[in-house]
Amino acid sequence: xxxxxxxxxxxxxxxxxxxxxxxxxxxxxxxxxxxxxxxxxxxxxxxxxxxxxxxxxxxxxxxxxxxxxxxxxxxxxxxxxxxxxxxxxxxxxxxxxxxxxxxxxxxxxxxxxxxxxxxxxxxxxxxxxxxxxxxxxxxxxxxxxxxxxxxxxxxxxxxxxxxxxxxxxxxxxxxxxxxxxxxxxxxxxxxxxxxxxxxxxxx
Length: 203
Known about the structure:
Elements: E1 2-5, H1 12-21, E2 26-29, H2 32-37, E3 40-43, H3 49-58, H4 62-70, E4 75-78, H5 80-83, E5 88-89, E6 96-97, E7 104-108, E8 119-124, E9 126-127, E10 142-147, E11 149-153, E12 159-165, E13 167-175, E14 178-181, H6 189-200
Parallel strand pairs: 1-2, 1-3, 3-4, 4-14, 5-7
Antiparallel strand pairs: 5-6, 7-11, 8-10, 9-12, 12-13, 13-14
């Protein structure tokens, strides 16, 4: 069973539909007991970093997330769900504390390159080394993004993929059982489904 965390924000229905489409049992839940008993856990997210973190705190889900990660079960953060795995975000005019699973921060995409912000649409990713998420994919696959902020990992060894959009930013990270993507695999067609399948098969 894959638990898709419901904390009041996130692209929940499409994520659940995508995971079930590739043949895995999945359910949307905000119940910490179900999250703790899941074989794998997925943290989606859209919206504001501060609101999302506050919602996780109010729902008492933060300890469950850290417990799942520490237990070594497969964990995947998507979009805002990736950003919250870092130490803090500059969104909202200050340094808003994140989950601190990865060292680093979340910064706004500069609007100085005559490129639209938010970064919205299809873009290629440059996959780094071997990462279980990207097994069997073509070189520099295209995936779907919707975001105005991006992660800047302090430990460059966790970078699984980068993307060029005015700047080069970290578009996927991975360490041991924890993976995260800035892009939306559930909206990225066959490539995205293959990425989700690669992750789900780790459970």
